[in-house]
């Protein structure tokens, strides 16, 4: 498929992108940084969806397009398929990846000090979780861009959790929630979940 | 001989001689594309294909259509009378590859006309080799 780039380059680029937008361009304005990063992801997703749908027959309905995202598109980006897809049949889909590759080399370190009272530890952990969540805006943007290019405008958000009992103890479970407005029967919906 | 190749997304961009007449042909053929896509009973087994085939022959021209998953349409207008199906499919496949590369340019604004010279060169190469292979 042409030229390829090493994965560590992608990791470094993403880390630096989040760092630049959060600490330099929009320091102390995490919402603006998040919106900017998501917009970059949107454009990338738009372009990638053109490329990855090239040799394929056309999708017959929206579910086919979403399955494409879960299987082929996810494989191209993250080298694996989605592990679980759920829907409420009213326009909301939850995609679950049990071992999200782009966070594989990151660790949350909530145990900064030992013997610290509960509150500061919880605070540190939520700060770390918030920092971690900045890395999710880019993949969310990619998914939103790809879907909107396939004719499904939607709102995408993501959540991570660390399941110690799961097969890969050091991995993060990524849950992506997609709300496709066109599939929603609620006429007044504006992407609210 | 290929007279015109058009890429139609939400706006149309065409590369042609005798622009007005060909614009007219391309616009008419877009109606046929929409009709083909929206009437599944008529299309039958070709519904899910990207290649829509011969849209309709007019006067001296033949018009072929191709629809991508991202709802971008390619229209090919040719004056050749004996064009093989497989040649046109080949043409569209290579054209699609060139289009994807042009659109992947980070400086390209989606929805605007493609201004890449590389794309123009690739397309004219594909057009030239189309003429050669069909003889």
Automatic annotation (TrEMBL), chain A:
<dbReference type="GO" id="GO:0005801">
    <property type="term" value="C:cis-Golgi network"/>
</dbReference>
<dbReference type="InterPro" id="IPR007194">
    <property type="entry name" value="TRAPP_component"/>
</dbReference>
<dbReference type="InterPro" id="IPR037992">
    <property type="entry name" value="TRAPPC6/Trs33"/>
</dbReference>
<dbReference type="GO" id="GO:0006888">
    <property type="term" value="P:endoplasmic reticulum to Golgi vesicle-mediated transport"/>
</dbReference>
<dbReference type="InterPro" id="IPR024096">
    <property type="entry name" value="NO_sig/Golgi_transp_ligand-bd"/>
</dbReference>
<comment type="similarity">
    <text>Belongs to the TRAPP small subunits family. BET3 subfamily.</text>
</comment>
<protein>
    <recommendedName>
        <fullName>Trafficking protein particle complex subunit 6B</fullName>
    </recommendedName>
</protein>
<dbReference type="GO" id="GO:0005802">
    <property type="term" value="C:trans-Golgi network"/>
</dbReference>
<dbReference type="GO" id="GO:0030008">
    <property type="term" value="C:TRAPP complex"/>
</dbReference>
<dbReference type="Pfam" id="PF04051">
    <property type="entry name" value="TRAPP"/>
</dbReference>
TrEMBL record, chain B:
<dbReference type="InterPro" id="IPR044760">
    <property type="entry name" value="TRAPPC2L"/>
</dbReference>
<dbReference type="GO" id="GO:0006888">
    <property type="term" value="P:endoplasmic reticulum to Golgi vesicle-mediated transport"/>
</dbReference>
<protein>
    <recommendedName>
        <fullName>Trafficking protein particle complex subunit 2-like protein</fullName>
    </recommendedName>
</protein>
<dbReference type="Pfam" id="PF04628">
    <property type="entry name" value="Sedlin_N"/>
</dbReference>
<comment type="similarity">
    <text>Belongs to the TRAPP small subunits family. Sedlin subfamily.</text>
</comment>
<dbReference type="GO" id="GO:0005737">
    <property type="term" value="C:cytoplasm"/>
</dbReference>
<dbReference type="InterPro" id="IPR011012">
    <property type="entry name" value="Longin-like_dom_sf"/>
</dbReference>
<dbReference type="InterPro" id="IPR006722">
    <property type="entry name" value="Sedlin"/>
</dbReference>
């Amino acid at each position: 498929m042409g030229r390829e780039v090493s994965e560590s380059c992608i990791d470094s680029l993403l880390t630096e992108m989040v760092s630049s937008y959060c600490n330099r361009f929009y320091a102390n304005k995490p919402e603006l940084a998040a919106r900017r990063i998501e917009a970059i992801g949107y454009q990338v997703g738009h372009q990638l969806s053109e490329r990855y749908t090239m040799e394929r027959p056309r999708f017959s309905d929206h579910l086919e397009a979403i399955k494409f995202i879960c299987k082929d598109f996810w494989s191209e980006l993250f080298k694996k398929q989605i592990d679980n897809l759920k829907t409420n049949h009213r326009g909301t889909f939850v995609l679950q990846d049990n071992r999200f590759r782009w966070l594989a080399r990151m660790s949350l370190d909530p145990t900064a000090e030992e013997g610290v009272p509960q509150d500061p530890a919880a605070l540190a952990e939520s700060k770390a979780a918030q920092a971690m969540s900045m890395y999710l805006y880019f993949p969310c943007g990619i998914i939103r861009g790809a879907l909107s290019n396939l004719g499904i405008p939607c709102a995408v958000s993501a959540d991570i959790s660390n399941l110690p009992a799961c097969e890969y103890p050091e991995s993060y479970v990524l849950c992506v929630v997609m709300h496709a407005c066109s599939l929603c029967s609620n006429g007044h919906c504006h992407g609210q979940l | 001989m290929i007279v015109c190749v058009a890429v139609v997304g939400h706006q149309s961009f065409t590369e042609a001689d005798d622009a007005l007449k060909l614009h007219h042909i391309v616009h008419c053929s877009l109606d046929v594309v929409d009709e083909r896509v929206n009437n599944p009973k008529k299309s039958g087994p070709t519904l899910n294909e990207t290649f829509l085939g011969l849209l309709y022959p007019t006067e001296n021209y033949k018009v072929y259509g191709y629809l991508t998953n991202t709802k971008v349409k390619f229209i090919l207008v040719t004056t050749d009378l004996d064009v093989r199906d497989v040649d046109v499919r080949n043409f569209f496949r290579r054209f699609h590859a060139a289009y994807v590369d042009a659109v992947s340019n980070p400086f390209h604004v989606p929805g605007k006309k493609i201004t890449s010279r590389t794309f123009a060169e690739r397309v004219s190469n594909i057009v030239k080799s189309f003429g050669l292979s069909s003889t």
